[in-house]
Write a structure and sequence with these properties.
five-stranded parallel sheet, Rossmann fold, alpha/beta, 2 domains, 24% strand, eight-stranded mixed sheet, 404 residues, elongated, 19 strands
């Protein structure tokens, strides 16, 4: 997911740097567009270093490279089509006026007219400018067009006056952005511990026992929780996918390593969602050297630690959600696991179905808690992650530890 962050000229322009970081913490890519006046307050290099993206400072490229200039001339269209939202913070009276009147005389105002994505503006200006009838009329025009206005705060202003006009708090701006993106901040203040991926149980230096888990379901939950405002602690077995950048990743390999990592992080967490497909068995003794092929052999196995049961036993006020991959008696086995491990909820899927579950971007699950059963028909793992987190929010509220 990507947004364009417009920064216009005002003393509050420096605050946009923190907005970049807060959005990145929620897994959002940010491309900054600066007006000429904004560059008088903050250098573009600051935003380039923070965002890792090109900072756009003018409508047309410079230099004699004709092709580069042609690309610059249509760049606003390409970005308009690529972004999921346009955010302007701070938005000066001048920017509000140009947006309202449809004046496209720089990159930011042209981008506004060219995009069909949601638009969020956070005004900041002198109190008299804010209260002026022209500014208020422009704001009303923008509201009627569906632009979200993050009202400025009142207080002491840089000009020495006191009143409305100070840029809203960064958290309020980010919350408005996430709402525009369809991601409510109902997990703000929560620390969500997610386990993901498979484990590997060593047989010898080159072989191990494992399973088909790709980690996609757990990573989707981690990213969705980030976008809903949570701090995410991700304990992951070996996977071939990149973890969400803002998640605090602890890589592990074996069930024993995963148990140690989870128990270390458990006191910090308020929610535990265990999607990892932990191996149920491991070799009793791993060979120090590669086992040579000599015909038939017997491999003695022993159970691995039951991480989910241990978490449920040690939890205090945390909500604990388990996952169960079943091939038969799906709901019956899931209900037994829910009860035997004292879970708050369990998410079960039938992995014998083709096209869902392991090695797939799609899933179909049933979420079972103590009070309800929620069927989630086949959907992307991202959508399934959202439905799981919806239930987590309900469980937190029901437990009396209401999500802030």
């Amino acid at each position: 997911m990507k947004i364009a962050l417009g920064v216009s000229g005002g003393i509050a322009a420096y605050k946009a740097a923190e907005i970049v970081r807060l959005l990145q913490d929620r897994g959002i890519r940010v491309q900054v567009v600066m007006t000429a006046a904004a560059q008088e307050f903050v250098r573009p290099l600051t935003f380039a270093a923070l965002s890792g993206e090109k900072v756009i400072t003018s409508m047309f490229g410079s230099g004699a490279d004709e092709q580069a200039n042609v690309e610059s001339a249509i760049e606003h269209i390409a970005i308009a089509q690529a972004i999921d939202a346009l955010v302007v913070a701070p938005a000066t009276a001048d920017v509000l006026a140009r947006f309202a009147q449809g004046i496209a005389n720089d990159f930011l105002s042209t981008l506004y007219l060219a995009t069909t994505a949601p638009v969020v503006v956070a005004p900041a200006m002198n109190v008299n400018m804010w209260n002026h009838v022209a500014t208020q009329a422009n704001l009303e025009i923008l509201r009627k067009r569906g632009v979200r206005i993050v009202e400025p705060d009142s207080g002491y202003l840089a000009c020495g006056m006191t009143g409305a006009g100070r840029l809203a708090e960064n958290e309020a701006i980010v919350a408005a952005v996430m709402e525009a993106l369809g991601a409510s901040q109902d997990l703000a203040g929560e620390t969500v511990l997610v386990t993901a991926g498979p484990t590997r149980e060593k047989i010898d230096p080159v072989r191990y026992l494992t399973n088909r888990s790709s980690g996609r379901m757990g990573y989707a939950i981690a990213e969705a929780a980030l976008r809903r405002g949570a701090r995410v602690l991700l304990v992951s077995g070996p996977t071939a996918i990149a973890a969400p950048g803002a998640a605090e990743l602890t890589p592990v390999e074996s069930a024993e390593e995963m148990l140690a990592a989870v128990l270390k992080l458990l006191p910090e967490s308020t929610v535990v969602i265990k999607t990892a497909a932990v191996a149920d068995f491991r070799p009793k003794a791993a060979a120090r050297q590669k086992i040579k092929r000599k015909g038939e052999m017997t491999l003695a196995l022993e159970p691995t630690a039951d991480i989910l049961a241990e978490v449920a036993r040690r939890k205090t006020s945390q909500v604990v959600v388990g996952f169960a991959a079943e091939t038969e008696n799906v709901l019956e086995n899931a209900r037994k696991k829910l009860a035997s491990k004292s879970l708050d909820a369990i998410v079960v899927n039938d992995v014998s179905r083709a096209g869902v579950g392991f090695d797939s971007d799609r899933n179909a699950v049933t979420i079972i808690s103590q009070t309800e059963v929620v069927e989630v028909p086949e959907a992307s793992k991202w959508e399934v992650a959202q439905r799981v987190l919806d239930q987590v929010v309900k469980l937190r509220k029901h437990s009396g530890a209401a999500v802030r």
